[in-house]
Amino acid sequence: MNVFDLCSTWDYSAETLxxxxxxxxxxxxxxxxxxxxxxxxxxxxxxxxxxxxxxxxRIGLEEALYVLRMLAQ
Length: 73
Fold this sequence. Notes:
A two-stranded parallel ribbon has the order 1-2. Helix content is 32%, strand content 8%. α1 links the parallel β1 and β2 (46-48). The protein has 2 helices and 2 strands. The termini are far apart. The protein is globular, with a radius of gyration of 11 Å.
């Protein structure tokens, strides 16, 4: 997320799979949807920042594409 959002909950859980943005044990379509919601600046979301997949410490379109690619395999 590019801005600090007081309405969002940030979860820093350990042992998270890359792309697991919603923190529900593994990759699913919900992770891609959540990444797209973050990209659209939606507020009030619960996000697992350890699920960030690209190494830029931001959640966005790259994570959505990563999750969709992984699910397509």
